[in-house]
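Late entry, evening session. Most of the bench is empty. Finally got around to the prediction I had been postponing all week. Sequence below, unchanged from the version circulated by S.P.
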Amino acid sequence: MKTMHKTLLASVASLIAAASVYAADIAGTWALSVESPRGVRESTLTLTQSGEELTGTLKGQRGETPVKGTLKGNALELNYTLEMQGTGLDVKYTGTVDGDTMSGTVDFGGMGEGKFTGKKQ
């Protein structure tokens, strides 16, 4: 009987640990607000998700840009390259997801930093 309880307890603990490792499902459309050195910009982020891997598009003032990233637990990382005057600028979003919201910081390729918030649509 003790062996059965130990096995059951180990199985439950494994399931809990596995659930905490897998990322939440954040696929879909998000309304983003980004505070940058040039002011606040609104954009739409559309994501698809395969496990921890994210792909999608960011649509804003400069048109549509492909994005890639990861979601590990609730830790979010998104990257894309912004073309400015013939030069690629690597933009990196780092933050957290909590249900239908996300927030964090943005590094504009060494050209400044900002903050972002997002709400799932």
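Two things to note before I forget:
DSSP finds one helix and eight strands in the chain.
The chain has a mean pLDDT of 86.
Will write this up properly tomorrow.
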